[in-house]
Amino acid sequence: MKNFLVILLLILGYSSSQAQVQNDVTAMNYEELEQRIQKEGGKMVVVNFWSTTCAPCVRELPDFMIINEKFKNNPQFKMILVSLDRAKDKEKVIQFIKKKNLTAEVILLDDIKRMNTWIPRFDKNWEGNIPVTVFYKNGEKVHFNDGEMSKEELENTVIKNL
C-alpha cells in the first residue's frame, strides 16, 4: 500500500507540473488580434504566425515552447501563437495544440480574405510567408523576424527586449 501511495503521488506531481494546454481556440480578425496584443500593455509580447501545414513553423514550435516555459512566470513576458489555418480547420488546430503540447496562448486568425490589408501593418516588408515572429514592447514593435528562428535567436531577442 505504501508503494502504491508513493507511485500515486509521483504521478500526480508529474501531471500537475505539466503546463496547461488550451482546449479551445479563439478565432478573431486582425483588429481583434491588434487589440489583444495592445491589451498586454507594458509586457514584451512575442507574436508568432504559423500554420499546422507549414514545416518550418512546426519545426520551430518546440523551441518556442521551451522559451515560453522559461519566461512564463515573468510578469513582463507573454507569448501568443497566431495560427493562420482556416477557420473551418479549428478542430484540427485544437488537436495539434494537444498533440504538440503547445503551452503558449493560441489564437486562430480568421481574416484570410484581407491578408493584403493586415500583413503590411505588422511589417511593411512582410510578404506573407510564414513563420514570422513579431516582438512588441509596451505595445510597440521592437523586432521583426522573417522565417524560422532558432532557440538561441528567440531567447536572445526575448532577453534583449524584456
From TrEMBL:
**Is Signal among this UniProt entry's keywords?**
yes
From what superkingdom does this record's organism come? Bacteria
Q: Please list the residue ranges annotated as the Thioredoxin domain.
A: 10-162
Q: Which residues form the signal peptide?
A: 1-19
Q: Which UniProt keywords apply?
A: Redox-active center, Signal
Q: Name one Pfam family in it.
A: AhpC-TSA
For whether the record's keyword set contains Transmembrane, the answer is no
Q: Note the PROSITE patterns from the entry.
A: THIOREDOXIN_1, THIOREDOXIN_2
Q: Where are the transmembrane segments?
A: none
| Protein's UniProt name | TlpA family protein disulfide reductase
